[in-house]
């Protein structure tokens, strides 16, 4: 039987190589770790956004009730979450300019005039503005639905809502507790990501170990050859081993036997042993003479010990053992040259992987 060289079969053989599967498994594990990290980051952003939205809703739905009319109402300290209605024209004494925006820093309301100049008033009478306060205020204006200002170690959110001509509602809230919650959330997500990554890597390592130890070892039995000398299978360890269980009465066995004999004679660093099942030496010898076949390695299993040990459902059955004598694969049915080559490549990849680990 000729060895197929069709390019259409090559990708399938290439994709089944253990070395490639190990690389794909590693890439899959890394992809899972990246996915866990991305999910944790998304969870952090989503939860932090939800917390800040909750703060905004609380500020807008629970402001301090103030009377209508001109004048100012105390805003108090932002840490208390107070709000007030502000008349920009009476915010600073003698000011008649129309305000372009309001700013707030730790209880201090600042009016920014159209020409960019500012005047500052402390509605609650609790804070005396300084140059530092004004500088921070200029960097934290309340000109959008949500503005954050940090001052003196306190993180404050300012909410500005127009209430009509010349009026605005200023609301402030201390976000220090929210920041602490977010830091705790970030720590939890980092630990969860690390734990998930560790579990994935440990699981992959366990699968690799399980794969490395897959299958029972070569049995310590001696099988006679055609000349009567015993062949002890355990002594064949040290190189990859292919054991083919066959019989002369089995048509698919007869069809694949020439290919196996040829592969066994040409193989380098590999042994292919043909083990006849439950037949007399004379029967096997006569068939090989008739078929003009001269196997390099042949043994007789008149008791069917190997078939019983590996519970083969029929013949032919081909067993692929690595150099340590561990069963890596069992193929039931007629072998093609491509399937045989695939099994041999898997054994050689396993041998290369074992050498790397050592």
Automatic annotation (TrEMBL):
<keyword id="KW-0812">Transmembrane</keyword>
<protein>
    <submittedName>
        <fullName>Thiol-disulfide oxidoreductase ResA</fullName>
    </submittedName>
</protein>
<feature type="transmembrane region" description="Helical">
    <location>
        <begin position="185"/>
        <end position="203"/>
    </location>
</feature>
<feature type="compositionally biased region" description="Polar residues">
    <location>
        <begin position="66"/>
        <end position="75"/>
    </location>
</feature>
<dbReference type="InterPro" id="IPR013766">
    <property type="entry name" value="Thioredoxin_domain"/>
</dbReference>
<dbReference type="Pfam" id="PF00578">
    <property type="entry name" value="AhpC-TSA"/>
</dbReference>
<keyword id="KW-1133">Transmembrane helix</keyword>
<feature type="domain" description="Thioredoxin">
    <location>
        <begin position="212"/>
        <end position="349"/>
    </location>
</feature>
<dbReference type="InterPro" id="IPR036249">
    <property type="entry name" value="Thioredoxin-like_sf"/>
</dbReference>
<keyword id="KW-0472">Membrane</keyword>
<dbReference type="InterPro" id="IPR000866">
    <property type="entry name" value="AhpC/TSA"/>
</dbReference>
<dbReference type="GO" id="GO:0016491">
    <property type="term" value="F:oxidoreductase activity"/>
</dbReference>
<feature type="region of interest" description="Disordered">
    <location>
        <begin position="66"/>
        <end position="90"/>
    </location>
</feature>
<dbReference type="InterPro" id="IPR050553">
    <property type="entry name" value="Thioredoxin_ResA/DsbE_sf"/>
</dbReference>
<dbReference type="GO" id="GO:0016209">
    <property type="term" value="F:antioxidant activity"/>
</dbReference>
<dbReference type="InterPro" id="IPR017937">
    <property type="entry name" value="Thioredoxin_CS"/>
</dbReference>
């Amino acid at each position: 039987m000729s060895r197929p060289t069709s390019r259409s079969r090559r990708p399938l053989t290439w994709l089944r190589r253990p070395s490639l599967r190990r690389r794909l498994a590693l890439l899959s594990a890394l992809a899972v770790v990246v996915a866990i990290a991305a999910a944790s980051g998304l969870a952090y952003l989503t939860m932090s956004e939800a917390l800040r939205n909750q703060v905004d809703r609380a500020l807008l739905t629970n402001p301090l009730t103030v009377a209508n009319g001109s004048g100012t109402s105390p805003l108090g300290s932002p840490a208390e979450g107070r709000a007030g209605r502000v008349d920009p024209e009476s915010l600073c004494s003698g000011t008649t300019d129309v305000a372009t925006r309001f700013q707030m820093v730790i209880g201090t309301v600042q009016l920014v005039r159209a020409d960019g100049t500012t005047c500052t008033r402390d509605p609650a009478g609790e804070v005396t503005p300084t140059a530092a306060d004004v500088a921070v205020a200029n960097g934290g204006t309340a000109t959008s639905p949500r503005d954050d200002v940090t001052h003196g170690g306190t993180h404050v959110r300012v909410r500005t809502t127009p209430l009509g001509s010349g009026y605005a509602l200023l609301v402030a809230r201390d976000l220090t507790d929210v920041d602490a919650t977010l830091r705790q959330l970030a720590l939890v997500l980092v630990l969860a990501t690390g734990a998930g990554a560790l579990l994935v890597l440990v699981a992959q390592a366990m699968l690799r170990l399980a794969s490395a130890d897959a299958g029972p070892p070569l049995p310590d039995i001696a099988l006679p050859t055609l000349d009567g000398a015993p062949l002890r299978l355990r002594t064949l360890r040290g190189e990859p081993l292919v054991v083919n269980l066959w019989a002369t009465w089995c048509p698919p066995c007869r069809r694949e036997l020439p290919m196996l004999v040829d592969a066994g004679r040409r193989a380098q660093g590999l042994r292919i042993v043909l083990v006849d099942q439950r037949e007399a030496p004379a029967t096997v010898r006569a068939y090989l003479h008739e078929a003009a076949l001269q196997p390099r390695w042949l043994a007789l299993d008149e008791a069917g010990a190997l078939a019983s040990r590996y519970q083969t459902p029929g013949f032919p059955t081909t067993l692929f053992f690595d150099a340590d004598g561990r069963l890596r694969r069992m193929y039931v049915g007629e072998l093609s040259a491509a399937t045989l080559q695939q099994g041999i490549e898997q054994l050689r990849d396993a041998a290369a992987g074992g050498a790397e680990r050592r």
